[in-house]
User: Which sequence fits this backbone?
């Protein structure tokens, strides 16, 4: 059996800015004491599965840990890649943390993968629309064939509106109009909600239903922040199963990236729950102040016009 080089393991861990406990948590199967012994060189041999798991988490080849391959340049390096000039709301930022912890990957990797996944979802949504439109046309053709057999029901096969609607949807799809914004119809259902009933949201909600409760897409019209929830179990685990605190995490009332490092240890669930509660309380107070200021300014403007 091979042996992990303790000095290499320590340097790679420190280059990530992780404590031994952080590394143990990310592996989920190797405890802090084992990592400490490995770094001190107290193990004469190391199981291959342990080597491969640590290498995967540290994002190096297994041979690097055993000294068979050269160690990459490490250190608390400054990322020279261009920064992403976008701002995201607290809820999706929390989602980024939760998903990264769930699958033991870097948050940057999820961000880097996002364009690919968005394109795949968008193209799949477009294909679904085309298929549904094709099914609708076939159904209308079947209706017309039936109508010819029922001459005593005049007008049964008249479906000018349906045909126009499908043509408009074809044009929208060809423009890559994900949300169907360009569709113009004379007759529009009054109960249509552009945030929940547009084709892209319908598709995202549908694929979320296949995730066994780990993901739920709620609404998005293409404007503002997409509303969805991911990793509710992981959110609850962070705060010791407190569902109210978990809800505050999922809705972005407490920003996980601002959580103090000293309460991130696995055993400090009570302190995390209290921190989330206080953050959410301040969030709600700030929201109330902002709403009051907005209404005051609105009323002041109306009074000044009189």
Assistant:
């Amino acid at each position: 059996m091979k042996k992990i080089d303790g000095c290499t393991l320590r340097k790679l861990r420190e280059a990530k800015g992780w404590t031994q406990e952080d590394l143990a948590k990310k592996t989920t199967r190797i405890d802090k004491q084992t990592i400490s012994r490995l770094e001190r060189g107290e193990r004469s041999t190391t199981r291959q599965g342990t080597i491969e798991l640590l290498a995967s988490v540290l994002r190096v080849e297994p041979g690097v840990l055993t000294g068979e391959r050269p160690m990459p340049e490490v250190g608390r390096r400054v990322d020279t890649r261009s920064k992403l000039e976008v701002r995201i709301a607290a809820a999706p930022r929390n989602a980024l943390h939760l998903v990264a912890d769930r699958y033991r990957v870097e948050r940057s990797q999820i961000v880097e993968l996002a364009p690919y996944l968005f394109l795949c979802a968008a193209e799949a949504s477009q294909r679904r629309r085309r298929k549904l439109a094709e099914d609708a046309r076939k159904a209308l053709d079947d209706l017309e064939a039936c109508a010819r057999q029922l001459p005593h029901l005049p007008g049964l096969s008249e479906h000018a509106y349906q045909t126009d609607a499908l043509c408009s949807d074809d044009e929208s799809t060809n423009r890559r109009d994900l949300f169907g914004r360009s569709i113009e119809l004379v007759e529009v259902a009054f109960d249509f909600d552009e945030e929940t009933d547009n084709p892209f949201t319908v598709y995202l909600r549908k694929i979320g239903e296949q995730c066994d409760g780990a993901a739920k897409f709620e609404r998005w019209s293409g404007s503002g922040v997409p509303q969805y929830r991911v990793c509710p179990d992981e959110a609850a685990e962070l705060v010791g199963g407190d569902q109210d605190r978990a809800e505050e995490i999922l809705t972005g009332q407490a920003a996980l990236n601002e959580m103090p490092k000293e309460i991130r240890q696995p055993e400090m669930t009570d302190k995390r729950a209290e921190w989330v509660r206080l953050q959410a309380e301040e969030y709600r107070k700030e929201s109330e102040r902002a709403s009051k200021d907005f209404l005051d300014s609105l009323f002041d403007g109306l009074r000044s016009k009189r």
Notes: The longest helix spans residues 107-148.
